[in-house]
Amino acid sequence: MTGLEQLRWIKSESPPDTPSIGRLLGMRFDEVDHGHVVMSVKTRPDFSNPLGTVHGGIAATLLDSVVGCAVHTTLPAGVGYTTLELKVNYVRAVQTNGETLTATGSVIHVGRRTATAEGKVVDGHGKLIAHATTTCLILQAAG
Fold this sequence. Notes:
Elements: H1 3-13, H2 21-25, E1 28-33, E2 36-42, H3 56-72, E3 80-90, E4 100-110, E5 114-122, E6 128-139
Antiparallel strand pairs: 1-2, 2-4, 3-6, 4-5, 5-6
Protein name: Thioesterase family protein
InterPro entries: HotDog_dom_sf, PAAI_dom, Thioestr_dom
Pfam family, one: 4HBT
């Protein structure tokens, strides 16, 4: 399957008990299109940092997921990727009370060896929580 086909299958068919970071955190795919992915998660007390707000790692994980998956949707069958760099900027804190965070990732460029993408996380009111850019290494199939 192509990357787009794989992610569309995961969105619609993947068993809910399949081990993954998405299952662990309760993330779900909302949109999967070529070069564009939207995922969301509801905050919960388990996401708390010592200050009582959502740990920044939750936003970073959500951003890493949507930007990487956006790149993945552009790849042919048998070609993978891995994150080389993720740059995250945090804008505001989030409460752990069930707020829905929505992350959008979009491809900027896909080349033969690297790809870049950008993403943002907003809260349920559309306020920016964090934004990021990534560089991914394209892993060509052996052969």
